[in-house]
Design goal:
about 70% helix, two-stranded antiparallel sheet, mainly alpha, about 1150 residues
């Protein structure tokens, strides 16, 4: 590029990613600066000045050097102009006035200031005039001469046209009306079609903005007839009619595309319907349906895509039986009557009229779209995937909209052509095309009973995972013909194919099962090859897809023993042959085990013993394969690496389901032998990385169920034999970890994950075995005493052997995140549900001791604390009611129950809570560290003397866990919580833990980490709920005193959060909290909380919205508004504040609608 001016240089550097240049453009677009170096000639400089200068420099540069390198510069400049034009002229004037008023070295008189403001307005008008001159200059739209200027680039030209539209909308509704009626429409014949279409398109887009000035949509409603009839319809007729003219083909396609997009956006903003468009065009002697039917024949992807988007917007199912307010307004303007004359027409009347007219439109479209079936094949043969996909979209839209009419016969003529088009699209190899058609094809099945046998083979074929064969070695096809990778294809199968397969099954279940069964038998034959394994996988997938529908009557104990029993038995017999290709295809092996897992209800309830044994042997044999199969040298190992779920995971899951559903069926010597082999293999497979801890847990749960079902004299021996590998492995790993720790962290790190997994497996074993015994006790009442006693004995005896090892791990390795998580899993899983024996109480005491040994010193890792808090929460959930009963009695008589087990449990719980809080107190923020008395002897939370520094919490995870624990305490044992001191041995009356927790929770409501904010909100909800519902007047009064001190702060923070400060996932709980806190405050004081909150600067919706919001919140205080309604209000307010535009939000159409809605009480 030749020597350039300063503005062009900035654009050049910004395109290169220079931070300084990008920052300069951002500031220049946002603010004005005053240059008063020469006080006699002060001047302001901002976005319009820069744009004006840059346009001059580009034009000068093009005169001498051409435009080849300046297209990007013009596009960037136009984008900047869009942003600057989005400010209204009055806002621009205010910004300049503020710039002048803030000047430190120059004090302008009122006249001088006004002169500077007027000068800037003149520059804006000059720039807009230049942009309009370029946009509407035919020479920039002449494709033969397009190379002469960068301004003629079609992207740059569209952006320049958008600047004109943005400026019109920013200037207000009258400006929009003037722009279209006085400029565009009268001059249509002398303006470039592309520019007119672009301006219309961007007018609609800008009117859709949240901050479009109030009245903009109303103006668009009033302009619809003129814009559709005099602008867009003629443009479409001209551009589509001349679509095949070679010299201007591309340009005509662009005009047609942008015109269709303009029509689609206009319909979106005004809710203009297809019948209304047809009516407008008919008045202008244009057959709109014929025009769009002609557009379907375009070879341009741009045109067909725009057509698809238009129909998707205009053809929507309306289940409410009436039309929208916007549609009613649009109808009034089209009919050209005033509001009084229009009142005789109801929304229901207009709905019925349009429904009939829409049927006529759909009848025509079904024929027109059906005719595209031949052209679809032609475009597919040419590899034109874009046109094919959009034709599929159009067919899907029309088919879905016409479904009800076709079924009822209201839409005549049939839909054979449309169905044929959709079938071709469904068979297209590209997933993004076929998925569009398949969704609708499944809905159209009910039109013709003979259609299901045609659709099912297509779906079965689409279920085959794309693959390639290198000789006899299969591998996954990367993208290729399907257009997607393996993960996307799996997503397509689960989210699209499954629904379609279910529809086929419901239409003709016998045909479906017969077809899939025959496929399984064929693909399991002795002559089947590795290639066939992919077809087998697809057939099993199709059977698994409808398993829930097959199992449903079985689970309801209906007469379902004969439902597809013959087909499922045939499938099982075929799979029993164990096709030789299975070890070479992990996908097929995984699907086989998924099939078994999905049909476990049938296998365990109605299948023959032989079929059940086959299913069991297939799943267990797969687990046994994990010890040796798919080594790195085998080609199939690469396929295994691509899989999200391995065949061994599916096998472990299937085995668990079989064993837990019918444990006594596998209490045979042969079955137990197979399980012992699988359990032994699981350790080998773990060392190979073939089984995850989740897989081992699945297998463990299943084996526990079988062992628990054994006779009393066999159960204990089998249980300990089953547990022995875990015990030995833990001892071995602990010794290795001790030795590695002496040699340094590098040696220890690899051992930690495995040690963690074994701890987790131990806890799963203990918990699962106890649960299985409890289930056996319920099923066999005669074994009640034996089962219950053995549950405790077996668990305690097993853990006694391991307790020194567990204590050693907790004391020496719990600072590691993985170990602490597993220990937490162990502690939570071991908490007994009943405290009915001495052994149980002693066991709980040991659990508390183990958890206490994990609590770190203040300078150590906080990872173990999270595990301890999970354990505390579990204890509270299970035994909080007992602890609460003791706390209530102790208030009256401190010695009444001092020797009870519940009292001991409460004391252990208190000690653990307080010691865990103490260990992390220094990182929980000011609320936990300040002295209990401040200022004039007030408690910390009501002191008027601010601390010297407000320290934010640094241990966010621990703080969130504390809030979760205290929420559980508030729900289960509120009295116990209320009298917890802030520290061990502290003052239970004047320095309460709950007071500090509430103050801390209020402080983190605006914490960027939304998880701690969420737990804080839930904690406050729990406390306020207790305050509102507790029977104890003492408890309610004490909590009211604490909450009253922070109520105003909470309300202010939540309302500010609704204005964009809260993470969107927090809106519902925050609304619940606000509803509760307003509902529990004294009615006479309510306004003093929400009115100041609505005056905060974060609330940007204006005075009218403030007034209706105050009225709305007052209804929350009286109970007239539900918490669900307040959630919707919060989402509305939050959404309105999500904008970064320069225009005022308070003066927008959206806020006017918001005010009107809530003024009428339409919440």
């Amino acid at each position: 590029m030749a020597q350039v001016g300063p503005a062009l240089d900035v654009l050049n550097r910004a395109l290169g990613g220079d931070d300084g240049a990008l920052s300069f453009l951002d500031r220049t677009s946002s603010i004005y600066i005053l240059d008063a170096t020469d006080s006699s000639k002060p001047k302001t400089y901002g976005g319009w000045n820069f744009i004006h200068q840059a346009m001059n420099e580009i034009e000068r540069n093009e005169i001498g050097h051409g435009n080849a390198s300046l297209v990007g510069h013009v596009q960037l400049l136009a984008t900047m102009a869009q942003r600057v034009a989005r400010r209204s002229p009055s806002t621009d004037r205010s910004l300049v006035a503020t710039c002048i008023a803030n000047a430190a070295q120059y004090h302008a008189s009122e006249a001088e200031a006004e002169a500077l403001i007027s000068l800037n307005s003149e520059i804006r008008e000059i720039v807009m005039g230049r942009i309009a001159a370029m946009a509407f200059d035919f020479s920039f739209h002449n494709q033969q001469n397009a190379c002469k200027s960068a301004f003629s680039d079609h992207v740059a030209m569209e952006k320049l046209c958008s600047v004109l539209a943005v400026n019109a909308v920013a200037s207000g509704p009258n400006a929009v009306n003037h722009f279209m009626k006085e400029w565009i429409i009268p001059s249509l014949a002398s303006l470039p079609p592309f520019a007119v279409a672009c301006v219309t398109y961007h007018l609609a887009i800008e009117a859709q903005s949240k901050t479009s000035p109030a009245g903009t949509k109303e103006v668009l409603h009033s302009l619809s007839y003129a814009v559709i009839g005099y602008v867009l319809a003629p443009l479409l007729v001209h551009s589509i009619g001349e679509n095949s003219d070679p010299p201007n083909y591309d340009w005509n396609c662009r005009v047609a595309s942008i015109s269709l997009r303009a029509l689609e956006r206009w319909c979106t903003v005004t809710d203009l319907s297809l019948p209304q468009i047809k009516h407008i065009c008919a008045k202008r002697q244009v057959n709109f349906v014929a025009v769009i039917s002609d557009a379907l024949y375009s070879d341009s992807d741009l045109v067909v895509e725009a057509m698809a988007e238009l129909l998707e917007v205009c053809i929507r199912e309306n289940r409410e039986g009436k039309v929208s307010k916007e549609r009613m307004t649009q109808a009034r303007y089209i009919m050209e009557v005033d509001e009084d004359a229009f009142r005789s027409i109801t929304a229901e009347d207009l709905f019925r009229i349009e429904a009939k007219e829409m049927e006529d439109v759909l009848t025509e479209l079904i024929t027109a779209v059906g005719l595209q079936r031949i052209r679809f094949s032609e475009r597919q043969a040419k590899g034109d995937h874009g046109v094919c996909r959009n034709l599929a979209r159009i067919g899907a839209t029309v088919g879905s909209a016409a479904l009800v009419g076709l079924l009822s016969g209201q839409i005549s003529g049939g839909a054979s052509g449309l169905l044929e088009l959709l079938m071709k699209a469904g068979a297209h190899p590209h997933v993004h095309i076929s998925s569009v058609a398949i969704v609708v094809l499944s809905q159209l099945l009910s039109i013709d009973s003979s259609f299901s046998p045609r659709l099912l083979p297509l779906l079965q074929h689409r279920a085959i995972i794309p693959y390639v064969l290198n000789g006899t070695v299969p591998s996954l096809a990367a993208g290729g013909s399907s257009g997607v990778d393996f993960y996307e294809f799996e997503n397509f199968r689960q989210n699209v194919l499954v629904e379609a397969l279910l529809s086929c099954y419901e239409q003709n279940s016998k045909y479906y099962m017969d077809s899939c069964t025959s496929a399984v038998e064929e693909f399991c034959s002795s002559s089947a090859t590795v290639e066939v394994s992919f077809q087998l996988e697809a057939a099993l997938f199709c059977l698994s897809a409808i398993a829930l529908s097959v199992n449903k009557p079985l689970r309801k104990n209906e007469k379902g023993e004969n439902i597809h029993a013959q087909q499922l038995s045939r499938c099982t017999s075929a799979l029993a042959t164990k096709p030789v290709f299975l070890p070479a295809n992990p996908l097929a092996l995984a699907q086989l085990n998924r099939f078994i897992g999905m049909y476990c209800s049938w296998y365990t309830l109605f299948a023959s013993p032989q079929a059940l044994d086959v299913a069991f042997e297939l799943s267990v044999s797969t687990i046994n394969m994990s010890g040796t199969a798919f080594s790195d040298q085998e080609p199939a190992s690469e396929m295994l690496k691509e899989m999200a779920v391995t065949p061994f995971s599916e096998a472990a899951k299937a085995t668990r389901i079989l064993l837990t559903r019918s444990p006594k069926s596998f209490a045979t010597q042969n079955a137990i032998s197979l399980l012992a082999s699988a359990w032994e293999t699981s350790y080998i497979a773990t060392n190979r990385g073939m089984l995850t801890i989740e897989d081992r847990e699945e297998l463990c749960k299943g084996i526990c169920s079988v062992v628990a079902s054994l006779a009393d004299d066999e159960r204990e021996k089998s249980y300990h034999a089953f547990a022995t590998p875990v015990v030995e492995c833990l001892h071995t790993l602990t010794k290795q970890a001790d030795a590695a720790k002496q040699q340094g962290l590098g040696r220890l790190t690899p051992l930690i994950p495995r040690l963690s997994d074994e701890l987790r497996l131990l806890s799963t074993m203990v918990k699962s075995f106890s649960s299985a015994l409890e289930k056996a006790r319920i099923e066999d009442a005669s074994s009640h005493a034996t089962a219950t006693n053995f549950t405790m004995q077996a668990s305690v005896e097993l853990l006694k052997k391991l307790w020194p090892c567990l204590s050693h791990i907790a004391a020496n390795f719990s600072s590691d995140k993985h170990i602490s998580q597993s220990l937490g899993f162990f502690l939570v899983g071991c908490v007994p549900s009943q405290l009915e024996s001495y052994d149980t109480v002693g066991f709980v005491r040991e659990l508390f001791s183990l958890s206490s040994s994990m609590i770190p010193d203040t300078n150590m890792s906080k990872a173990p604390l999270l595990a301890v808090y999970e354990f505390i929460e579990r204890v509270i959930d299970l035994h909080g009611s007992k602890i609460e009963a003791v706390a209530l009695l102790l208030i009256e008589d401190a010695t009444a129950v001092s020797s009870s087990t519940s009292h001991e449990l409460g004391k252990q719980l208190e000690d653990t809570i307080l010691s865990s809080v103490l260990s992390t107190k220094g990182s929980l923020g000011t609320a936990w560290t300040r002295d209990k008395e401040q200022g004039q002897g007030q408690p910390a939370f009501e002191s008027k003397c601010k601390p010297a520094t407000e320290e934010k919490p640094t241990d966010i995870d621990s703080l969130a866990a504390i809030f979760t624990v205290l929420s559980a305490a508030a729900e289960n044992c509120p009295t116990f919580l209320l009298y917890l001191p802030a520290a061990a041995g502290g003052d239970r009356d004047n320095d309460k833990l709950i007071s500090r927790a509430i103050e801390s929770s209020v402080a983190v409501l605006v914490e960027p980490d939304f998880e701690v904010a969420r737990t804080a909100i839930l904690f406050l909800i729990s406390v306020i709920k207790v305050m509102a519902t507790a029977e104890s007047q003492t408890l309610r009064g004490a909590l009211e005193i604490i909450i009253s001190r922070v109520r105003g702060t909470i309300v202010a923070i939540l309302i500010a959060g609704f204005c964009g400060g809260l993470h969107p996932t927090l809106l519902d709980p925050a609304a619940t909290l606000l509803h509760q806190i307003l509902g529990t405050c004294p009615p006479q004081d309510a306004a003093s909380y929400y009115e100041p909150a609505l005056q905060q600067e974060q609330f940007k919706l204006g005075e009218s919205a403030r007034l209706v919001s105050a009225k709305y919140l007052s209804r929350c205080c009286t109970g007239d508004i539900s918490d669900m309604s307040l959630m919707r209000y919060a989402e509305e307010v939050w959404d309105l504040h999500q904008h970064d535009e320069a225009r005022s939000l308070a003066d927008s159409d959206r806020v006017v609608e918001f005010v009107e809605k809530h003024s009428l009480g339409l919440d």
